[in-house]
Amino acid sequence: MNWSVILGAAFLMATSAIGPGFLTQSTVFTGKLGASFGFVILISIVLDVGAQLNIWRIIVVSKKRGQDIANLVIPGLGYFVAALVVMGGLAFNIGNIAGAGLGLNVLFNIDPKVGAVLSAVIAITIFLIKEAGKAMDRFAQIMGFIMILVTIYVVTTANPPLATAVAKTFAPDTIDMMSIVTLVGGTVGGYITFAGGHRLLDAGVQGEEDIPKMTRSCFSGVGIASLMRILLFLATLAVVSKGLKLDPANPPASVFKLAAGNIGYKIFGIVMWSAAITSVIGAAYTSVSFIKTFSPSLQKNEKLLIIVFIVVSTIVFTFIGKPVKVLILVGALNGLILPITLGTMLIAAYRKNIVGNYKHPIWMTIFGVLVVVIMTYLGIDTMINEIPKLF
């Protein structure tokens, strides 16, 4: 199996996670917590690994998608999970399309709605190519590399206080629970956890013999998303530690502009568009992968469903705008979907009718259960204390 499939799934997962919300969260929380945000990133990376390793492994071993595994654990659960994932994916895709429009607006000064429609056309074109899977993998890799390289340039220009960042990552001044839930939900919540696993299945990586390939792909995906999070954290920290104020209307854009002037602002346009367009593709592909196994006609019309998904997201944004409250509510729900999906997968790991004679490592089960418990507690706490403030 060549590295392009392993990296393709890794970049699909990572670039699905790195969307407009990811850029905004990273800068806003760094502005609020300063160097202590490093601790939040560290904890979220540990929780990400615990969730992704378990879910990807059980998908690859069982040779089944998340919704089919859930239906075998409890009949009907797969349909419920699929409904949650598709609703979340659609809501996030409205934000992703908006972000793509904003990115082109920064780069070429065109109307964000026109930019959104152009971006949707580019995303649809990728799925119209005969070898759509390979085209998607390659596009995610190219855009991912561009994002990382230009952000490294901004970080080196900004000259962040690295010693302080490292120190506060392990000994933070404050611990902010809401930011941990938001980061984990935004990186492995909802459809994102399944993006890479489902892509590996479609590319033929399945069965116990392919566990090493799955593991390499999973760690690569978490590593890419984490590297981008750390780079954004350092760039923002460099700006706020100099006493400069972020623009509340567009925090990530102000970070790039304050760190590297007008060139930095244009680089933000590149990063925003790359992050948004790859998230549009990842959300559409993964959301449809959650319903295509429910009937042969859905399976046969997979590409058409993906295109409809992108078109609907674009129409909603163009005519209604970005429903902020809906996006925040779905973001919190994404954090709650994770304990349900991960908990289901951990039960599936011990069901012979799903995994055969495969033996799931005890340490991975314990790791997974800890993530389920922590995310259930944090998710419910957020729903009770934070969500009512929205309405």
From TrEMBL:
Predominant subcellular localization, coarse grouping: membrane
Compartment(s) of residence: Membrane
Alphabetical UniProt keywords:
Membrane, Transmembrane, Transmembrane helix
Instruction: List all membrane-crossing ranges.
Output: 33-51, 72-94, 114-132, 139-158, 178-197, 218-240, 267-291, 303-320, 326-350, 362-380
Q: Give membrane topology per the record.
A: Multi-pass membrane protein
Q: Which domain of life is it from?
A: Bacteria
Among PANTHER family, the record links this protein to: SOLUTE CARRIER PROTEIN FAMILY 11 MEMBER, TRANSPORTER PROTEIN
Protein name per Swiss-Prot or TrEMBL: Divalent metal cation transporter
